[in-house]
Write a structure and sequence with these properties.
The protein is of the alpha/beta class. 25% of the residues lie in helices and 29% in strands. The protein has a single domain, classed as FAD/NAD(P)-binding domain (3-Layer(bba) Sandwich), CATH 3.50.50. It is built from eight helices and 18 strands. A hairpin with a 4-residue loop joins strand 5 and strand 6. Helix 1 crosses helix 8 and helix 3 packs across helix 5. It is globular and about 60 Å long. Bound molecules: flavin-adenine dinucleotide.
Length: 354
C-alpha cells in the first residue's frame, strides 16, 4: 500500500487544489488523486468571473463564502505568483450587471456600484476575473512547490471501509491510505459518494473571440449570459446551461445561440474571429449551494463540491474552510447550510451570477 498522507483529496480541480494549497500552508501533508490531468475539467472550462463582496457586512453563509473569497483573491493571486513565478490572470477589471433593478443585497452588503446611464446597467468596480488555465497551472505548481503530491491518471474506484472510518481508497494504481479523505470530484462527485450527494452535471459552452479593437473593456453580465474580455483581444461569450448528462461536447445549436447573443449585444464581435469553442460540466445542485462538510456515517470523510456556476470565485474561502475542518479547527463560516445532509430547500438566488 502507498504510504500515508495526512489528507487524500479525490479530484484536482480548482476546489481540490484550493483545499490542498491551504492545507499545505498549514503544514499538513496532502496527496491529490486525479483521474486525468489536474485542472482540466470544469475549472479549466470556466470564464473566471469573480463576483465582488464585502466580508465586513455579508451575513448569510452563501454571501460570506462569496465575500470572503472576493476579499482573499488579490492576496492569493499575488502569493501564487510569488511562489511559482506564474501569472493567474487575476485582475479587477470591473463589470456591468444588465438588470432592470438593483439587488437589495448589493447595498446592504455595502458593495461599491453605480448605475451607468450609457450602458443602462449597474457597474461594479470590484468585479474581477482570473484566466482559468493560468490559475490552474499556478495552483498545480504551488501545490507541488509546497510539497504536495498530485497523482495523475489515478482514478478512484471505491472505498475500503472499516466501521465508521474510511481505511483506504481503491484506485487503478492500487490502494491509497490517509488519515482524512476529501472528495472534490466536481460533477462526478455523486459517482464517488452515492446518490445522496445530489450533485449533477450541468453543461456550459463557451465561444472565444479574437478581436483586434472595439471589444468590451469590462465584464458584461445579462442573466445567465456574459462577455468576459481577457484584456489581450480574447473575449469569452458564455454560457449555456444544459442537462445532458456527462457529455462535455459543444453543439452547433449551443455555439450558434451564444454567437447570436454575443454579436447582438456587442456588434463589433460580428467582425471578430472565433478562435475556439469548448464546453465543461459544472457540478450543479438542486438548491444552488455547494456541499461542504463531513459525510454522515464517516469520521474521516469530507466533501467539497456542487459549486455550480461559482466554483472558481468561491474556491479561496472553500479552501480555507475545508482546511480548517480537516485539521480540527472550527470553520470560520458555519457549515450548517452547506452540509451534505441538509434538508432540501428552494434554489438559492445568488446576489451575482457567473
Ligand atoms: C462554461 C463554464 C463557465 C463557468 N464560469 C464560471 C465563472 O465565471 N466563475 C466561476 O466561479 N465559476 C464558473 N464556472 C463554474 C466552475 O468552473 C466550477 O464550479 C468549478 O470549476 C468546479 O470545480 P471542481 O474542482 O469542483 O470541479 P472540476 O474542475 O470538474 O474538478 C473535478 C475533478 O475531479 C476529478 N475526478 C472526478 N472523478 C474522479 C475519480 N473517480 N477519481 C479521480 N479523480 C476524479 C475530475 O477529473 C476533475 O479533474 C463555469 C463553468 C463552466 C463549465
Amino acid at each position: 500500500m502507498t504510504p500515508l498522507a495526512d489528507v487524500a483529496i479525490v479530484g484536482a480541480g480548482v476546489v481540490g487544489l484550493a483545499v490542498a494549497y491551504e492545507l499545505l500552508r498549514r503544514g499538513t501533508r496532502v496527496t491529490l488523486l486525479e483521474r486525468g490531468e489536474p485542472g482540466r475539467a470544469a475549472s479549466w472550462a470556466g470564464a473566471g468571473i469573480i463576483a465582488p463582496g464585502n466580508p465586513d457586512r455579508a451575513n448569510l453563509p452563501d454571501d460570506r463564502l462569496r465575500a470572503e473569497s472576493a476579499a482573499r483573491w488579490p492576496a492569493l493571486a499575488d502569493e501564487l505568483t510569488a511562489l511559482t513565478g506564474l501569472p493567474t490572470g487575476y485582475r479587477r477589471c470591473g463589470g456591468f450587471e444588465h438588470v432592470a433593478d438593483a439587488d437589495p443585497a448589493w447595498s446592504s452588503e455595502g458593495i461599491e456600484h453605480h448605475f451607468d446611464p450609457d450602458q443602462t446597467a449597474f457597474f461594479f468596480p470590484g468585479m474581477a476575473q482570473v484566466r482559468n488555465p493560468w490559475l490552474l497551472r499556478a495552483l498545480v505548481a504551488a501545490v507541488a512547490q509546497l510539497g504536495g503530491t498530485i497523482r495523475t491518471q489515478c482514478e478512484v474506484t471505491g472505498w475500503q471501509r472499516d466501521g465508521d472510518r474510511v481505511a483506504a481508497v481503491e484506485t487503478n494504481q492500487g490502494r491509497v491510505a490517509a488519515g482524512e479523505y476529501l472528495v472534490c470530484g466536481g460533477a462526478w462527485s455523486e459517482r464517488l459518494l452515492g446518490p445522496g450527494t445530489a450533485v449533477f452535471p450541468v453543461r456550459g459552452q463557451i465561444v472565444a473571440y479574437r478581436i483586434a479593437a472595439g471589444g468590451p473593456e469590462h465584464i458584461h453580465v445579462w442573466d445567465k449570459q456574459y462577455l468576459v474580455p481577457r484584456g489581450d483581444g480574447l473575449v469569452l461569450a458564455g454560457s449555456t446551461e444544459e442537462l445532458v448528462g456527462f457529455d462535455a461536447s459543444t453543439t452547433e445549436e449551443g455555439i450558434r445561440g451564444l454567437r447570436e447573443f454575443a454579436e447582438s449585444h456587442w456588434p463589433a464581435l460580428r467582425g471578430a474571429t472565433v478562435e475556439a469553442t469548448w464546453a465543461g460540466l459544472r457540478p450543479g445542485s438542486a438548491d444552488n449551494r455547494p456541499t461542504l462538510g463531513r459525510v454522515p456515517g464517516y469520521r474521516n470523510l469530507c466533501v467539497a463540491t456542487g459549486h455550480f456556476r461559482a466554483g472558481v470565485q468561491l474556491s479561496p474561502a472553500t479552501g480555507r474552510l475545508l482546511a480548517e475542518l480537516l485539521i480540527g479547527r472550527t470553520p470560520f463560516i458555519p457549515l450548517d447550510s452547506f452540509r451534505p445532509d441538509r434538508p432540501a430547500g428552494p434554489p438559492a438566488r445568488p446576489a451575482f451570477r457567473s
